[in-house]
User: What shape does this take?
Amino acid sequence: MKLTILFGGASFEHEISIVSAITLKEKLENFTIDFVFCDSDHSFYLIDPTKMKAVTFSKGLHKKMPKLQMTQGGFEQKTLMGKKVYKSVVLNLIHGADGEDGTIASLLDFYGVKYIGPRTAASVFSFDKVYTKYLCDAIGVQTVRYEVLKRDEQKDISLAYPVIIKPARLGSSIGVSIVKDASELDYALDTAYEFDDTVIVEPFLEGAKEYNLAGYKADGVIKFSIVEEPKKEEFLDFEKKYMDFSRSEHVLKADIDEELVKKLQINFKKVYDGLFEGSLIRCDFFVHDDEVLLNEINPIPGSMANYLFEDFAQVIEELASSLPHKKRINATYEYIHSISKAKGK
Amino acid sequence: MKLTILFGGASFEHEISIVSAITLKEKLENFTIDFVFCDSDHSFYLIDPTKMKAVTFSKGLHKKMPKLQMTQGGFEQKTLMGKKVYKSVVLNLIHGADGEDGTIASLLDFYGVKYIGPRTAASVFSFDKVYTKYLCDAIGVQTVRYEVLKRDEQKDISLAYPVIIKPARLGSSIGVSIVKDASELDYALDTAYEFDDTVIVEPFLEGAKEYNLAGYKADGVIKFSIVEEPKKEEFLDFEKKYMDFSRSEHVLKADIDEELVKKLQINFKKVYDGLFEGSLIRCDFFVHDDEVLLNEINPIPGSMANYLFEDFAQVIEELASSLPHKKRINATYEYIHSISKAKGK
Assistant: This one.
């Protein structure tokens, strides 16, 4: 099938989006793919598939490739002869800001482009960890207890140490610290505030197990991936996570019973239904004291969590043919007509 | 000052956006305003100010005016000589879908345009009445009890009659019904489902008083309007509301004591802080059994609630000079560089 992979973005995860795109090029080798790069100045470039290497971007070689502009229905390239519009389904692969905060979703919606990825509301609820808590509290999905700190409000934390400090709106462990006691708090807060004005504090759950589950809806049904128990060091730092985004090898199923798998799936479904249609998401859970707790929703997981699915090409084909359709409302001028009439004009 | 008023949109409230824009033209007569119309096919047009009349749009005369395109920093007009970019601060005056659902906010953010209006997350929380409940529950603002119904899920309502039925994502009373007993329910639901797949049901609060309060943040402080007690018929139907959007006369302060004013302001501030910066919103409250309940957040109120402010031109000037700045993140290619180096390439 034909697919447009949109990657890059003005985001701290710009580089891992490049890695994700390169990985998917290999995983979807039977697809005809247009690679559209969003530079951090928000210019779009059509990337020669044979140049899909990290150095193309770090050396700025993409700037010599054709520039594209958004237009109704797709990306437009001006040519000597006129213009060409690239119209295939877009896979939004921009991690972090732009891609996961609702900006790109809105842009694609506005220009009437079909896409795989979270819609605007879904993005808002998953991008900001505080809003993820609001969502989960409202729909009855348990999460880790939390407190919110803001840069311009002096406030003590009331949770017992050790705690984990995270910028509210960043993924990939950027700016995240584990704080063992009060002496480490200020440094951890300073680190997190470098990335966001709002910080979330959670208890660090000693002995919690971590499980990842991905899925997507096609033909009205959620299709789940296998459950993975990610290898755990204290937590992945950015460099390790960066390498992690290039994963393409299948992983082994976590060694857990069917009952737990079911519980994870039920929680996933509560989060997904009515909000994440059109996207493939990965939910990261903790199991602690026999409770299932949602840790994070990744609405555009690294390399689309391809390694959790048996046949990833089929996953993308199914998703692409089950995309939600945003009805566009036409103006009828009914009221203006009736009022003009009443006025005798 | 210079200002761009963006109005229209692919929305059931397209026509009332036109009315709002015409009203603001009169209210801001000392401003130099570029009027940018977003047609329901998402084309942009630069409207001749002398043609800012409802019939210009209902007769399609705008299609003969210059077309504009979004570009970094503003709206671009192609001219015989090259191009001209309109760069002044945008006032997002598109009511309903597009304007209030986060689409236009994201578009303006992506293209680096400064604007007055709700940002993407603020839009999501105010546009969908269910998400407004999530927000209020999380931040401790009381609202009316509610149930959610979905088109494809058969479910009885458990609230006692009379109830009020509203499409989750529409303003201006479109699709809203008061249901006095079970015999009227199906018809009311059918009406609401014409506009949205999700419907919200609330008890109809007999004898509740309604109060509207608008405000905005400038220089770090929220500036409040007077409190209005809107004239109440059972509720405004769309045609009455339509006329209501052209209001420009000052209204009288509601006859309430300072303590209640303070309570309304405290609730307004809880909603606004950290979410609605950059916008002028109107919160509509009920007071029932001595409780203050938030009914609705209007992030782009009809004619910007100009009639609630003493000096509306000053309001817009203050807001325009206190807009939040979205930092754009530059790609550094730090990790790609270090990895390429490690590989010796």
